[in-house]
Amino acid sequence: MLRLFTRGLIALAVLVLVAWGSVSVGISVGRHYEQNRLCCETPGRRNLMLSWRETLGLATFYSQIGQDKWVLETVFPGVKDGFFLDVGSGDGTVGSNTKALEERGWRGLCIDPFPKNMDGRSCQMFKEVVFSEAGKRVTFQASGDVGGVADTLGKWKGQALGAPSVELITVTLGDILDRTKSPAFIHFVSLDIEGAELEALKGFPFDRYKIGAMAVEHNEEEPKRTEIETLMRGHGYRRVHSWYQDDFYVPLGSR
User: Fold this and answer.
1) Which of 36, 111, 125, 129 falls between 20 and 30 A from 21, CA-CA?
2) Domain check: are 212 and 102 in the same one?
3) CB crowding 98-127: b at 16 or more within 10 Å, else e
4) What is the residue range of 19's domain?
5) What is the pTM of this model?
């Protein structure tokens, strides 16, 4: 019933705009609203306001499939002092899952062995490769925007394996969190490391750090995707949403 009511509000808003002669604006609001509903499950009334802001150019997001929007508008609306952990941060602007968070006052850590386009970013940057254990020598290969640990590369393995390689020494997420004296509650974790997500999570100290929300890339790779869900559920988290190549988690009992 609530969804029907909200959709009715959208339809009314569009009709009002049409009556004012702003057909294109009304269509844009409607498109934003539907996209936000699908990508981010943004609640109806908040989605309506967000769609207006986006249409008017008053809201900017950078994520490829709306991960930043999901965090800011659905899970933690109004939070201005959150903390994030961006694992596989890659390009600091194009497709970034955390740049929009910083622009709203958040702080956090960015981890990527070969970051780029980090001008203007305030996150602490770590040029390291994370894994389930520290001190492991691994081969890292990258081609364009695709790169990762050779032994765990998944969907894009064929593309990356043809690229030059470099040997790196691994660290765990626990190492970095402890080294930086990060807060015990991490509002958002973005995990996108081309097939090594499960290994990275095995090195996360769930007993000492709690996560408010997480977006983890799975690229439809099995059994990794199922194993990630099993691991997360075992530590008290549930998958609440899936969109394209990412699964989205929050603590059990929330939302």
Assistant:
1) 36
2) yes
3) bbbbbeeebebbbbbbebeebeebebebbe
4) 2-55
5) 0.88
